[in-house]
């Protein structure tokens, strides 16, 4: 009996020890698989694996986890191993299974299960690491936001902020100029380039498409490589292609240059507001961002004034043969690039945003800039002895990223890898804008931006088109009609304008050195007539007969002769290309520039009111209130039956709606954290330009047809925008996230 008891005790010790050994082996296999998964997942991360090696060392001495979650002590494990060794001398078939597992020859089922457990454990550990990292990063960001606000309070608001205000204002001014350039030059460029109606429409929209792409791209990059650097790159692209567009002759090349110029200037608005906000303390932010918006208005005034002063002066031009022409409108395009060039020059003297540096773990660089801000303001205020008291600033925990460029890789391959890595970083940052934390805010802001842009841009382009339509109606009402006139042996050497001649007979008449504007000849006979040096615009001959008639140095091309018969008639030395004619309409050109000037200047009162009240009544009340009043003003459009009435309504709508735009810009800056601010702003601004293209296309299609549809579309969009705006969180009085 005693032998039987000792046998049972020895067997139970053996089984317990074998199970412990199997668990240790299983754990080691899982560790190796998990380590391989971690290394593959972190291929682009500079993560230390030292902790895994330390865990391996600890496991060798600390013992394996038991069933109760505890650990065996070193001495008890040694005793167990001695017992297990003694017991295995007389092992049976069951013992061989445990011994085989320990030797690394597991059964297929057990090996698969162990591998899967290891992968799952590795993934769970990686998820816990990422969650812990995000938690630490969020905590750092909250602490930084509070401390940064305190530091800005100590730095004060003074000379540095005002200097940066004017520098960034130039960049915003360049954006305002870009909107007006194509609209002002289009009536003259269409003559220079022989543009069809579809080509003119594309040229009018191409700038918005470029700005849409630019806003998204530069906004995303500014959160990765810095506000200042990205703004310099975008403005440089705008300047270069604006310069080229002044000289290129073909339509396709001009279209491409304006597209690239729009892509460059697209980064201006999202970067400028984010950049400036990170130098402003909480009590000054709303007011001074609203003051900054005035530079967009100044850009519009600058463009209108330059167009007024330059384009109608046709003497400001030269040409080399008929192939290369440089008319006054090209001088205007060149002058419109000056604000961007000035912004680049001034921006090179300004520092990067210290908030961007702190968000990216660059403490020393941020501290030096904040000290510069403090010292500049204190010296300007007469307190040069005041010392910047901040010694340490909280920085956000970074997840270091390692990109393996390879030792022997070519330079273009290294650049490709860098750009690919940067693209993935920007795209990942953009996706976080739609994470559960920001998803509701982003969707609401998308709706508000879209509705505001759809109505504003649609109406601001619809107004000038309606004014032109009313002008054409008034011009057509003054048309003179001549029927069955007979003219013989007469020389016409004066301008013919706005006339209709039906069933006339012209014998041995001379038309020399004259301009024909809006002239129509119908069912008329020209016999032995002579046309020399004729320049026409909107002039047509319909169902006419020409007998023994000579055309010398004229632009009476085939498309101006509609269903006409030519008998023994000759065309010599026709004018080649598209000649820029001073279409009557110098007065009309002045009117277009004057209307744009008034419409832009009308936003000045709205800018002042929004700046003074932004921090007093809050962003949401300003946004919703201005949108509601703009919505109401839309119904006055039905009374715009004259040119002067439409101009007055344009000024009224612009002056009211600008306050909602200012509030929307401030709200967008304050709703998103610093590491996502320009990404979110750029995306929303890109959506704004898309809505502008849709609004312009839809609203202008109803010119001369009905006013009801534009009124309903604009008022409905503004009403929806004001309602949704009230659902957004108020950011007044909060620190910059």
TrEMBL record:
Chain spans, region Disordered: 25-95
Transmembrane segments annotated in the record for this chain: 162-189, 201-219, 231-252, 258-277, 289-311, 331-350, 443-463, 590-613, 620-639, 645-667, 679-702, 708-726
Gene3D superfamilies for this protein: E3 ubiquitin-protein ligase SopA, MFS general substrate transporter like domains
Subcellular location: Cytoplasmic vesicle, Secretory vesicle, Synaptic vesicle membrane
UniProt keyword annotation of Metal-binding present: no
Gene Ontology MF terms: transmembrane transporter activity
Keyword annotations from UniProtKB, A to Z: Cytoplasmic vesicle, Glycoprotein, Membrane, Neurotransmitter transport, Phosphoprotein, Synapse, Transmembrane, Transmembrane helix, Transport
Compositionally skewed regions (Basic residues) per UniProt: 25-34
InterPro entries in UniProt: LD_SV2, MFS, MFS_dom, MFS_sugar_transport-like, MFS_trans_sf, SV2
Domain of life: Eukaryota
Any Pfam family matching the protein: LD_SV2
One GO term describing the cellular component: synaptic vesicle membrane
Residues covered by the Major facilitator superfamily (MFS) profile domain: 164-732
Lipid bilayer topology: Multi-pass membrane protein
Major subcellular location class: membrane
Gene Ontology BP terms: chemical synaptic transmission; neurotransmitter transport
Biased composition, class Basic and acidic residues, residue ranges: 35-53, 74-90
Family: Belongs to the major facilitator superfamily.
Alphabetized PANTHER family for the sequence: SYNAPTIC VESICLE GLYCOPROTEIN 2, SYNAPTIC VESICLE GLYCOPROTEIN 2A
Protein known as: Synaptic vesicle glycoprotein 2A
Natural source organism: Xyrichtys novacula (Pearly razorfish)
Lineage, highest ranks first: Eukaryota, Metazoa, Chordata, Craniata, Vertebrata
């Amino acid at each position: 009996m005693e032998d039987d008891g000792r046998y049972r005790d020895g067997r139970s010790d053996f089984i317990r020890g074998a199970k412990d050994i199997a668990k240790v082996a299983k754990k080691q296999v899982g560790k190796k698989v998990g380590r391989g998964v971690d290394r593959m997942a972190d291929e682009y991360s500079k993560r230390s694996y030292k902790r895994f090696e330390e865990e391996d060392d600890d496991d060798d001495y600390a013992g394996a986890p038991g069933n109760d979650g505890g650990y065996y002590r070193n001495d008890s494990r040694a005793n167990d191993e001695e017992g297990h060794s003694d017991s295995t001398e007389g092992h049976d078939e069951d013992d061989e299974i445990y011994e085989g597992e320990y030797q690394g020859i597991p059964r297929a089922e057990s090996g698969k299960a162990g591998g899967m457990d290891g992968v799952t454990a590795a993934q769970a550990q990686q998820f816990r690491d990422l969650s812990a990292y995000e938690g630490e990063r969020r905590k750092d960001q909250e602490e930084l936001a509070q401390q940064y606000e305190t530091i800005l309070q100590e730095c004060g608001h003074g000379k540095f902020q005002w200097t940066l205000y004017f520098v960034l204002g130039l960049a915003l001014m360049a954006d305002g100029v870009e909107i007006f350039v194509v609209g002002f030059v289009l009536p003259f460029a269409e003559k220079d380039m022989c543009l069809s109606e579809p080509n003119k429409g594309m040229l009018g929209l191409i700038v918005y498409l470029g700005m849409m792409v630019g806003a998204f791209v530069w906004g995303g990059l500014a959160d990765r490589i810095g506000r200042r650097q990205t703004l310099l790159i975008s403005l440089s692209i705008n300047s270069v292609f604006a310069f080229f567009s002044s000289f290129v002759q073909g339509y396709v090349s001009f279209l491409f240059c304006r597209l690239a110029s729009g892509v460059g200037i697209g980064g201006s608005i999202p970067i400028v507001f984010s950049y400036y906000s990170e130098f402003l303390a909480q009590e000054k932010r709303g007011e001074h961002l609203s003051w900054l918006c005035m530079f967009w208005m100044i850009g519009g005034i600058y463009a209108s004034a330059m167009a007024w002063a330059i384009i109608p002066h046709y003497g400001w031009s030269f040409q080399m043969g008929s192939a290369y022409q440089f008319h006054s409108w090209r001088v205007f395009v060149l002058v419109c690039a000056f604000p961007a060039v000035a912004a680049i020059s001034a921006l090179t003297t300004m520092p990067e945003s210290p908030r961007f540096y702190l968000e990216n773990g660059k403490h020393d660089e941020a501290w030096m800039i904040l000290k510069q801000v403090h010292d500049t303001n204190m010296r300007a205020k007469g307190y040069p002895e005041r010392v910047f008291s901040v010694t340490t600033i909280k920085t956000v925990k970074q997840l270091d990223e390692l990109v393996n460029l390879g030792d022997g890789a070519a330079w273009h391959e290294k650049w490709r890898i860098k750009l690919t890595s940067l693209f993935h970083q920007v795209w990942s940052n953009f996706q976080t804008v739609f994470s559960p934390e920001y998803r509701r805010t982003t969707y609401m802001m998308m709706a508000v931006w879209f509705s505001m842009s759809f109505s504003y841009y649609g109406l601001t382009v619809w107004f000038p088109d309606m004014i032109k339509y009313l002008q054409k109606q008034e011009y057509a009402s003054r048309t003179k009609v001549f029927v069955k006139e007979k003219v013989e042996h007469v020389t016409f050497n004066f301008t013919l304008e706005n006339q209709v001649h039906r069933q006339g007979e012209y014998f041995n008449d001379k038309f020399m050195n004259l301009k024909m504007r809006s002239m129509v000849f119908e069912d008329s006979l020209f016999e032995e007539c002579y046309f020399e040096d004729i320049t026409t615009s909107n002039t047509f001959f319909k169902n006419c007969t020409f007998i023994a008639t000579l055309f010398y140095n004229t632009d009476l091309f085939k498309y101006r002769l509609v269903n006409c018969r030519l008998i023994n008639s000759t065309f010599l030395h026709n004018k080649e290309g598209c000649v820029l004619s001073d279409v009557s309409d110098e007065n009309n050109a002045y009117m277009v520039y004057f209307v744009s000037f008034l419409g832009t200047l009308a936003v000045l009162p709205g800018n002042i009111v929004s700046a003074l009240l932004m921090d007093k009544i809050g962003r949401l009340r300003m946004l919703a209130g201005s949108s509601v009043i703009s919505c109401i003003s839309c119904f006055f459009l039905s009374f715009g039956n004259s040119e002067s009435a439409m101009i007055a309504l344009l000024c009224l709508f612009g002056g009211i709606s600008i306050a909602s735009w200012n509030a929307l810009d401030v709200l967008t800056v304050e709703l998103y954290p610093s590491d996502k601010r320009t990404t979110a702003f750029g995306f929303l601004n890109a959506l704004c330009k898309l809505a502008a293209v849709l609004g312009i296309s839809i609203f202008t299609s109803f010119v001369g047809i009905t006013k009801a549809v534009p009124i309903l579309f604009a008022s409905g969009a503004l009403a929806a925008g004001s309602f949704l705006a009230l659902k957004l969180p108020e950011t007044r009085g909060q620190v910059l996230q």
